[in-house]
Structure formats: structure tokens, C-alpha cells
Fold:
Amino acid sequence: MPATNETTLTQWRFFTEAEAETVDAICARIFPSSDGKPGARETKVITYIDRTTANEEEALRRCYRDGVEALNALTSELYGQRFAELTDERQDEVLERVEASTATESTGAPEGPEDEGLLATFFALVWEHTIQGMFCDPQYGGNHEALGWQLVGFPGAQWGYDAEQMRPGFDSKTIPIKTLEDLRRELRRADA
Amino acid sequence: MPETAEAVVVGLGASGGIIAEQLTRAGIRVLALDKGPVHTSEEFTFKQDEVKYYSRGSLVPQLATDPVTWRPDETSTARLLPWAAGVRGNSEPLHLPPSIGPGGGTLHWGGASWRHRDADFHMKSLIEERFGPDALEEDSTMVDWPIGYDDLEPYYDRVEWELGVSGRAGNVKGAPDPEGNPYESPRERGFPMPPLRTAPADDRFKAACQSLGYRPFQQPAAVASTDYKSLKGCEYCGFCHGFLCHVNAKQSSRITSVEAALQTGNLEIRSNSRVFRLDRDPSGRRITGVSYFDPDGNVHQVQSNLVVVACYALENSRLLLASGINANGQVGQNFMTHSFGWCSLVLPEFSNPFMAPLVAASVVDDLNCDGVPDNDEGVLWGSVLTSIPGDLQPIEAAHNLPPGMRRWGQGFKDWFSENYRRLMGIHNQVPSFPSKKYYCDLDPVVKDKFGQPALRITHDWSEHDLAALKYFEKVKRAIAEEMGATQFWSEPTPPAYHLSTHEVGTHRMGENPADSVVDIYGESHECKGLYVVGGGQFPTLSGYNPTQTLQALAYLSADHILDKV
Structure:
């Protein structure tokens, strides 16, 4: 399939197109790509989250649905735009505000407006899923082409390491990255 | 007609596996019931999967199926474990009860394999002699062990040689070896395998500790360094603690004891079978069998006059309480756990923390047990200090960032990309002391889907826990500085979680039936033929990890059942 058609042909398993746009915009602020190195977008974190959420329990799915709605309601009120339409700087300001409400919640102080508690939980959930989507095995839909592992120098699913590789200071980026599918293929080949 | 069995073992983990093997080898036909699944060889082979095993905690029981509640004190209302409940779930699976299914906790464990020191069996006497009779708090329920190191030495030896432990001995029959642990109590012989190759950053840790005057040595590991019996030599893949082992290097009762028991032809395993009641005769003084739910929720009964309950300190206690076996009120009392002190370092060179098992590392034992120096900070008992140079995958690493740093955005991305490959950890664990304030009982409200009551934990960190965590934080910081770390930080202390997979003490062993639950062989004082085994038997917790001691106790229980002691 030509890459240019990918976005339009995507069939989300859980998200609506509008929800995917909002969540994708959050993920891109957690792991941005403006430095030219892979971030949440290049590793397809949104695909990981969509697939994961499709199989999750109702409470988690509702947190995504309600969280997206509450975030867009907040940005509409503040700036008259949906979250995804804001500039990067504005998006960061909003997320900082949302994260600050987490801090209030965890100190046990009286909770703010109901939406703030929901947004704090929602952002914490998206953060968890973004980290997972960046560094999961690619079989889960994220860490596309192992770009997340490449970014941090993690060689992925290995059978093991030898004494030379275990020397202090060894450059792990010289070890070819493997995925679980690579391991499966190796075993199939060995069996054949 | 209910089914009958010569012996029933509930839970095939570290203890249950050993006892099942010893009984079946002696010709006893054993029916084993385990509430977890049998993990397939496919799962073992392709375990290099952090999302499955870390993020989703697929080896451990989940709160939805196995609810546990916690409250800090009696005035609070217990809630489902707040550090693991909610839509975000648990970012650290080992803050829940340990893994289930044949293998039990030895599926997930890191393989830290320690003998207690002689001093650990006399903690109370040693603390009172040194710090005075009022050193322990008023509510303390601490007692010395009814057995000592010498009683367990032959059983420690069996764990090391029958199951397989790698390491270097420091004290064989009183002869010191400077390469081994200078503080260990005398042993009859060394280990059957040499130590593992260490993870990359360990050299730096060891050198720093030596220059500070400590005597580091490589920790004993239940991970094979060479092929040994049913174990294969480790390949250092780095997916170890929390993961299954793809080469069977990590000692797990699933591949040692359970496999050997199956080969006798005398073991039948029923997985996904959840025992919910221990059945007794009308007097209540003798076990008659167990009742369990099959995977479809149907109730079954098995009659037997020998039942071994080996499903962890927490579930053991829950099962006794749910069965009404608690005449003296001692079941669930004396809850103890480790308060973990994790700290992280960034090193100037690549440490590649994703290589090697968690335990392919050095430790400092100078400050453990009664070796903790005189101090004005109220620290009565010490802890082992462990280098953690390996077994760290990126998702877990992203959950432990320097405090004050924003956890997202370009700054976070830069920091993590630059430093993931330079991380390493230093760890210590403070044993909590038993107290009237800390215990488990049945939750009056929360039940599982079968209508069985959840376990409720009442526990908070004591002043001693806090003092010891603070003391060891300074020690770790000094080591990190000596190592040339460019950054050093500690996880928040005390920990927000109160489960460490090192819970012990809740069915204490003792000679007096009035103030303990089982005898030194693990047999219930109240109900004959019922053995309740595992870390729940411990009168006190050590600064060391508990597994090898509970494995030694399992061999002792088996010998008693077979009339050898």
C-alpha cells in the first residue's frame, strides 16, 4: 500500500478519527519529533494505543472517551480550539496544567473540578501507553521498525550477550536489533 | 463419593514444588492444585516481551481476580491496593502477590539466593543485648527463631546442590576465602557452580566499594553459570527478574522439582484450580481434605489426611482464615515485608543495563544484620547492599526518572535517549519488624468473583523503617559518588507500596501452640495433617532475600512428613 494513503485507509479498532487525532497530538508532546529523531508519531504509538484499548476493560475505554472530550472542552474554553489545533507551546501549557492537577490529587488535598481529576488520570494513562508504545515489541503495533529501541540504544529481543558485548563502555548500537518476530524466524529456520 | 488423594499440595511454587518432589520420590501419590495456569514452552522461549511481563504483569495474580486490600492503620478504610488499582493499572507487577502457576514465585524471581546468617535467627536477643530492652517499640511482637543456623545448614546445602546455586563461598568449615562472603556463617561445602559473569557496570561498583573500605563479593545466584542438572548455563539476555527463562538457567521449581516429581509418575497437577476451603473432621483437630473451584467455577472436594498449603504467606493466611482455622487468633499476625530502597545512577560510560540477570552482580554485606555500625539514627538492624547493573528494559527505566525532571517533552526525550544506556542501580532492603499493628485479616466487604473474602493488609512503615532507609540512602550516595556517577537519585521513600513479594511471618512457626500457628516442621498446631509452609513461617525477616530459607524449610517439612526427622 502506498504510504501516502496510509492515514486515510487506517481503520481504527477503538478510536474515532477525531479521538485518534487528539490522543496522537498528546503523544507527540510526550515524545516530540521536532529534533529530527523518531518520536511518538514515527513509532506509531497511536496504533499501539488503539489496539491496546480495543481489548481493554470498559473503565479504561471510558477514560479515553471522556478524557478526549474533557481536554477538548478545556482548550475550547481557553483558546476556542481543539487540543490538536493548538500550537506546540500552547499544547505544552495545557498539559502542564493538567499534570499539575495530578499533583494536587496525589497530596490528598481537596480535589479540583471533576474534569481536572479526570484529565489528570487521562494524561497519566496516555503517558503510560506512550512509553509502552515507544518501547514495546513491534508486534503490538508501536515501536514501528524498532525506531524507539534504536533511539535509546536497546538491542531488543536477544537470546543473549557475549563477554565482549558485556565489556563496560561497549557501544550497544553496534548490536543488530532483533524483535520477537526475528527470534521466531530464526527458530523456524533452525527447524527447517 | 468425593475423590480421595494420598496427599494434596496446594500451590506448586518454591516450597510446594520441593515437597511434591520429595513425597512423590518416596512413592506417595500427590495431587497438586494450583490456581494459576501452566505456562507453555512457547511462553518460555519467547519471553523477551516487556509489555507482556512488565506492563501487563501477565505472571502475577491481578486485583480483578484476586482482590487484596490495604489500609495504613485500623482507623482507615481498606481499599483495593491503591498503588495497583485503577485504569492505569500497576506499572510495577511485583508490587502485587508473586507469580502463580506451577513454578509459583520462582517463575518471576530474580534468583537472589541467600542463606540467613546465624545472627538472623537471634534478631531479638541481639538487638536487646546491644541496644537495651526498650530498643524495640512497645507493640513489638518480635521473637527469636525456635531453630538456628546449624539446624538449617544441611537443608541450605540441599537447596544449593539439589536445585542449583552459583557463587563463591566465603567460609567453608571456618576457612575464610577473601573472594567470597566474609560474613557468612560456616558452611560444609561451597557452591556447585562458579559465579556468573557480571553485568557491565558491576566492576565500577566493586572498585568503589573496595576503595571505601567495604568487602564486596559476588552474590550467590539461583541462576546457573554452567550447565548443571536440569539447568542450562545463563546466556545473559537480560530479561530475567519478572520474566520466564528461555534457557532454563534460572532455577524455578517448575523445571527442577516439579519436573522431577512428574517423572516419578506420582504427581498429578490440576492448574487453574482454586482451593477455597480446608476441610476438617467434626472436632476441627484433623484435616480431611480440601474444596476447590475448577476453571468453570464448579466446586470439587478431595479427601486426604495430608494437605500441604504452600501458596505464599498471604494466600496461606487467607485460606486458613476463610476456613476458620484460627483458634488462637495468631493467623495473619506478624506481617512483615521489606521496604525497598532503590536508587539510580547515571555513569560516564555505557553501562548497557539491559544485559545479564539482576543477580549477576556484587554485594556489600558489611552493614547487614548486627553488622550495622553503632549509630545515633536509631538503626537497629542492617541490610544487604546490592549492585543492580543489569536486567533493566526501557519501559521500566522510564518509570524511574530523576525527581523534579518533567517526564515528557523534548527535555525528557533528550535525557532518556542519552542516559538509558548509562543507568545502573544500587539497592537495599530494610526488614520490617513484627508488631501488633501490622497484620492481615479477611476484608469485611471485598470479595472475589466466587464470593470468597479478600485478604486485608493493615501495615504502615515504622520509625525504624524510615530511619534505616535514610541511613542506607547516605551509604548508597557515598558509593555512587565514589563510582563517579554524574547523577544520583532515590525512589521516593518510604515506598508507596506495601507488597514487595517478600512478605513473611503471617503463620509464624513456634514451639508454643498458644503464640504461633505452625511448629518448626510447618505442621499446624491446631489441625493435624495440615502443613502450612513458606515464608509465612518466619518469626523474623532478614536483610537477605527470603527464598533460599523457605526452600530449606520445605526440605525440612518433607523430611518430617516422611518420618526422617
Notes: The radius of gyration of chain A is 19 Å. Chain A is about 55% helix and 0% strand. Residues 1-5, 104-113 of chain A have pLDDT under 50 and may be disordered.
